[in-house]
Amino acid sequence: MNRKIKIGLIGLGTVGSGVFKTLKNFDNVEVVKIAVKNLNKPRNIEGLDNSILTDNPYEVVNNPEIDIVAELIGGINPAFELITKAIENGKHIVTANKELLAKRGEELFTFAEQHNKVILYEAAIAGGIPLIMPIKTILAGNKINKIEAIVNGTTNYILTKMDMQGASYNDVLKEAQELGYAEADPTGDVEGFDAAYKIATLATITFKKRIKIENIYREGITKIRAQDMKAANDLGYKIKLIASGQIDENGNADVRVHPMLVSKKATLAHIDYVTNAVTLTGEPVGSITLSGPGAGEFPTASSVVGDILSIVAELGNSDYILPMMRCRHEETANMIDITQTKNKYYLSINAKNNMGVIGKIGTICAENNISLASIVQKCVGEDNTADITVITEIASESAMQNAIKLIEADGSKVNSLIRVQV
Question: Total structural domains in the chain?
Fold first, then answer.
């Protein structure tokens, strides 16, 4: 196409600003309208013509000259209504909205297909890391059956600082908030919601079956203690918040988000601070890890602009553009509940320093078909209690939970249960 492709942006925050600045470098596109929340907000953006700003996003989605709308505001509403209206009006969509895709992606992709429009979302999973397009193109010949990923920079920053400083969760969270790495209300990050949204979409496209967000087991990092960090290090592990997914030969999917002891020999153990990484395992490729900045103005803008330019390159060449990037996962995966899974476990137990206490813990585990890989007693305190660290062999989740109840009924306190990477 000889004409400039017209772009509309919804949102001019951190990501939106990066997208606008980056698009200025390309002669074949033009941003003609930007929806913002506050027209009077000072914006130090070189080359920004304030006349293209509006506080009415429908001026973007209803603008007949716009070809592509980039939705960069996040959340469910009004993003869902704006995207569907834009599609109705003949526009292709680029979004970075992981929550919307996880909760209402099926509706959006079906609606887009009905109107022969595409929705691209490279920025919604891991910021600047090229992930979605490689999975759908270069890796299309693989049967990928396992994902292990660090996809939330805030929690990875907190866990890294706890590890490096030996500090408590609360102290590091406060520091992260002061530095702008954590929100004033960090719940979405530290309780694992953000990572769950991302793994829902990533597992859907990777396993080629729909993964329902409500069926994903989710556990955050708020209970991780400095003592757990030290114990993990002593045992040859790092603690990371891992978003994982596996699918078996019968199409049963185990998708979850929770802290995990990761072996120091594994790549993910060395992904620190705000960096993200995704490890994919399948045939014939084996295991590959893609790593890079998972958030931020220009890393995320890189993915958004890449999606925009992918659409621009196809416009006018076909009546049905980017067929490989379209979503056709009509079958919903059969999800395995966490209680039906098998895992290795790390336990931190505080027990009375009485004769036979370790034997009792071992007996309870044995009676629940749980074999112990190691058990270490340290630190007899002034109150005559001891800290006991246990690493199990692979055992069923239901058996482990039952064993914890019995250990605590015997007078001990299980301070931490963290699953261990297998």
Answer: 3
